[in-house]
Amino acid sequence: MGDILTQIQDELDMLLNQMSAALRQIRENAPPSVPPGQQRLDTFAELEARTAAENTQQGAAADPSQPANAPPPKPTPEQFEADLKEMAQDITLKEQQIEKLIAHLPGG
């Protein structure tokens, strides 16, 4: 039984890591939504990018040997949707694996 409990714990750890990665992906790459009747505000990532660009322009004049660190490009809306679908499938598969392990516990 101890072996199954260890497997369940390991699988739960992996499930939580997958969920955390999915939330990070959504937070970083989801397009902002604008409620009806309100103006669109810049996202934190857009503000950071603008500040970094301004600092790079100021820093480039002072030290041209430093290369600019551009953030990676955002995925297209189609790629973002495909990534979300893949992450959802991975999470569902992991949950099913955990259910199978739980079914093999004694007394169940």
Automatic annotation (TrEMBL):
| Role summary | Component of the Mediator complex, a coactivator involved in the regulated transcription of nearly all RNA polymerase II-dependent genes. Mediator functions as a bridge to convey information from gene-specific regulatory proteins to the basal RNA polymerase II transcription machinery. Mediator is recruited to promoters by direct interactions with regulatory proteins and serves as a scaffold for the assembly of a functional preinitiation complex with RNA polymerase II and the general transcription factors.
One example of the protein's molecular function in GO is:
transcription coregulator activity
Under InterPro entries, the record lists: Med7/Med21-like, Mediator_Med21
Where in or outside the cell is it found?
A: Nucleus
Quick one: a GO cellular component term?
mediator complex
Keywords (alphabetical) are:
Activator, Nucleus, Transcription, Transcription regulation
Task: Please give a single GO biological process term from the UniProt record.
Answer: regulation of transcription by RNA polymerase II
Quaternary structure annotation from Swiss-Prot or TrEMBL? Component of the Mediator complex.
What Pfam families is this protein classified in? Answer: Med21
Which protein is depicted? Mediator of RNA polymerase II transcription subunit 21
What family does this belong to?
A: Belongs to the Mediator complex subunit 21 family.
